[in-house]
Design a protein that fits this description.
The structure is a single chain. This protein is of the alpha/beta class. It contains 12 helices and 16 strands. It has helices at 16-25, 37-44, 55-63, 98-108, 127-140, 178-189, 201-232, 236-243, 267-279, 284-294, 296-310, 338-348; strands at 6-10, 29-33, 67-70, 81-84, 90-91, 94-95, 116-119, 149-152, 171-175, 195-197, 319-323, 352-356, 370-371, 384-387, 404-406, 417-419. The strands form 3 sheets. An 8-stranded mixed β-sheet has the order 3-2-1-4-7-8-9-10, with helices on both faces. Strands 13-12-11-14-15-16 form a 6-stranded parallel β-sheet, with helices on one face. Strand 9, helix 6 and strand 10 (195-197) form a beta-alpha-beta unit. Helix 4 (98-108) runs parallel beside helix 5, helix 7 crosses helix 10 (284-294) and helix 11 packs across helix 12. The longest helix is centred in the middle third of the chain and has 32 residues, at 201-232. The model has no long low-confidence stretch (mean pLDDT 96). Bound molecules: nicotinamide-adenine-dinucleotide.
């Protein structure tokens, strides 16, 4: 495979930008296409908005002459490999594949014989073959398998993970047929240390949904356990830590205020939707996990309300500070974050909600919530703090004098600190 391969990465978000940057490092000539003009222009100016990719890396890629960022498909020219990394959200609880359809149709116009198209977006089994391939064929007049190649490779990126990154995380790859697999695997063999071929596109698509459903269900298990353990007067965190010492047959998951991000609140529902549509059956584990995880913000607000009540205060009129708004530690990503529901519930009860989160940019900041500084002085008139996300660079010592509900078990319990 030529090192000067022309690659297109469609979508320059949390998944697409790392793929594009790694491909540049591997010697490819890369075009990143993102219809979000703000993002495309930021990248063209050497500014990254993805935590794992420093702006300096984007600047180096631009300076190498092997990376460009476009906000349309007009001038993408000829390419050998295109990787699609666009969002796959839910719309009214149903998979919304509009972005996959649109990007496939746009790519089809410049698809040439011998090229390879790989879908990385998370989706239900059958999407690549039944949705993407027909769109590519119709738009190009070419035939998949004989004129061009098609693959699926799920992304396993874990934003902020200092150990497992794009290069050392094994990458599952699949092709429409044997020839497609050779092309898809060849592409990723140049980018990552280990590729894991599976026999079919649908197996690769299901792999990603299995991984995320596994996590979703196990988090729901400890979340529900935490709620009951509190009522039973048992320290669930200590039990989880103790169980975590078992060297086999147990994997440690920790409770929290709910799940967020693009993956866990969304992906398992792609699976349950497909099971329902095709088999007419309910994927009970997914439904149950959704229900438990979606109600964790209610539990957090109930516990916070009790703390105020114990201090002869009501939620109405209290100044409540949320510490951490993003769905995970050290990230500024607020998509589907439980903080949104906590804000909604507290607002409905009449609280004056303020928050601290240096990772969350202004354009993602929730409306109606005052941003306060991560300093003890800013908490002087706060009635209650709620730790939702424990960023490493936010010193929780600032909460020393404030009654605090800690949904992450990062503070020591005391008269003024209650842990989930
Ligand atoms: N974020 C993660 O941690 C993660 C991990 C694994 C898999 N995934 C999956 O990867 C996919 C992308 O997720 P993400 O987090 O990178 O999303 P993202 O929103 O950060 O980035 C996607 C980008 O695609 C762009 N886009 C939308 N339609 C387009 C089109 N027609 N042409 C060009 N660009 C278009 C958007 O403007 C956006 O910038 C999703 O299917 C997601 O489930 C995400």
């Amino acid at each position: 495979m030529s090192v000067q391969q022309q690659s297109v990465v469609v979508g320059q978000g949390y998944v697409g930008l790392p793929v594009a940057m790694r491909a540049v490092d591997a010697g490819h000539v890369v075009t990143g296409v993102d219809l979000d003009q703000r993002r495309a222009h930021a990248l063209a100016g050497g500014v990254s908005y993805v935590e794992d990719i420093p702006s300096a890396q984007v600047q180096r890629a631009l300076e190498s002459g092997r990376y460009r960022s476009l906000d349309s498909y007009e001038s993408i020219g000829a390419w050998d490999v295109a990787v699609i990394t666009v969002p796959t959200p839910l719309h009214e609880s149903r998979p919304d594949l509009t972005f996959v359809e649109q990007s496939s149709a746009s790519l089809a116009r410049s698809l040439r014989p011998g090229a390879t198209v790989i879908l990385e977006s998370t989706t239900y089994p059958g999407t690549t073959e039944r949705l993407v391939v027909p769109i590519l064929e119709a738009g190009s007049g070419l035939v998949a398998g004989s004129d061009f190649f098609v693959g699926y490779s799920p992304e396993r990126i874990d934003p902020g993970n200092p150990v497992w990154g794009f290069v050392n995380t094994p990458k599952v790859v699949a092709g429409l047929d044997a020839a497609s697999l050779v092309h898809v695997q060849g592409f990723y063999d140049g980018l990552v240390e280990t590729t894991v071929p599976v026999s079919g596109l649908r197996e690769a698509e299901l792999t990603k949904l299995l991984e995320n459903t596994f996590r979703h269900v196990n988090i729901a298990l400890v979340n529900e356990l935490a709620v009951f353990a509190n009522e039973l007067g048992v320290d669930v965190w200590e039990s989880i830590d103790a169980a975590g010492t078992k060297p086999f047959g147990f994997m440690k998951f920790t409770p929290g205020p709910g799940v967020g991000g693009h993956c866990l609140p969304v992906d398992p529902s792609y699976l349950s939707w497909e099971v329902k549509r095709t088999l007419g059956k309910t994927f009970r584990f997914v439904e149950l996990a959704n229900d438990v995880n979606e109600h964790m913000p209610d539990h957090v607000v109930d516990r916070a309300t009790s703390m105020l009540n114990d201090r002869s205060k009501s939620v109405r009129g209290s100044r409540i500070a949320l510490v951490g708004l993003s769905y995970k530690k050290n990230s500024g990503d607020t998509r589907e974050a439980p903080s949104a529901r906590v804000i909604e519930l507290l607002g409905a009860l009449g609280a004056d909600v303020v928050a601290v989160d240096p990772h969350v940019e202004d354009h993602r900041w929730p409306t109606g919530v005052e941003r306060i500084a991560p300093k003890a002085a800013a908490f002087a008139d706060v009635d209650l703090a709620i730790v939702l996300t424990d960023h490493d660079d936010v010193d929780l010592a600032m909460l020393r004098t404030v009654p605090t509900f800690d949904s992450r078990n990062v503070l020591s319990p005391s008269d003024d600190v209650v842990v989930l």
